[in-house]
Automatic annotation (TrEMBL):
Keywords per UniProt: Leucine-rich repeat, Plant defense
Protein name: Disease resistance-like protein
Organism placement in taxonomy: Eukaryota, Viridiplantae, Streptophyta, Embryophyta, Tracheophyta
Keyword ATP-binding recorded: no
One protein family per Pfam: NB-ARC
Amino acid sequence: GMGKTTLAQLVYNDKRVNNHFTTKAWVCVSEAYDATRITKELLRELEISFSDSGESLNSLQLKLQLGLTEKRFLLVLDDVWNRDYDDWDKLKMMLKGGSEGSKIIVTTRDNRIALMSIHHLDLISEEDSWSLFEKHAFRDKDNENWRELEVIGKKIVNKCEGLPLD
């Protein structure tokens, strides 16, 4: 409810992002962590061929790792709930073959998961929050008219407490 998925979608669908990465994939992980399902979804999204039945998780993960080798990729793992460090470690090992500049975005409601993941995104400063809010809230407004609303806008930014909501 804080806009994590929406923020990730904005990044994922941005033209500059599309131009930067060779390949990209989005997988909703959700509460029931299933490594086989997640790996198969990544393979499908990345258009890496595999047999939908009969292949072991190890075989699927090897195909994923080889399919990402020397590619600059963006992966979004949305709504992650799994706190098992070993699962995270196995996933990270599969994704190490990508080219420099590859990125993984993880959205989660659980701060402990964020700390285990690849990189924890901190809250933004009040100044940066205001800059983001101002850019979006007053984008098409006449400068003279929106100055009256600046006080209200700054109260809204304060209530967001550093969350980069859009």
